[in-house]
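User: I'm putting together notes for a lab meeting next week and I want to include a structural view of one of the chains we've been expressing. I don't have a solved structure, so I'd like a prediction I can at least talk through. The sequence is below, exactly as it appears in our construct file.
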Amino acid sequence: MGCWGMGMAQSDEFCEIYDRFIEEYDEGKPLIDIKKDILDEYLGQFDADDGVLHDVYFAIGKAEWMCGGISDEVLEKIIQIVNSGANIEFYRELEATEKDLKQRKKNLDSFLEKLLTPRGTTRKRKTPVEKYVAPTPQPNLPEFTKGDFFA
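Assistant: Thanks for the context. Below is the predicted structure for the 151-residue chain, given as structure tokens.
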């Protein structure tokens, strides 16, 4: 796992999960199926207490919130992670400075507050480029050059 800052989206895992979630959402897959597939994959790879899973839950939570509403299961897990201080301890193990840990705590609290507030609008699904219908080809027209006349 790579972290390059204290922001919520400043880790490789968060970015990968969020992008995957949005991509599958845009393809028309139901939210509950996307969440289940991602959690099944990551819970199969990591222990339930592994800090990598924090970013997985954070990314799923943000994506669900953007796409219509966060599920109770994910919201409860995020609340538990933030309130227990588990994510701060995980970053402490990654040798974050005290200043960085204070910033991370502030970001976690702000993130949780945002998720607890209904978004108001739902992110619209975007049609993936490969699903666009190709325009019908134009019939072959004779080639004209400069100075040609026709009636």
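A couple of points you could mention at the meeting. The CA atoms of residues 26 and 125 lie 5 Å apart. The two ends are 70 Å apart (CA to CA).

User: Perfect, that's what I needed.
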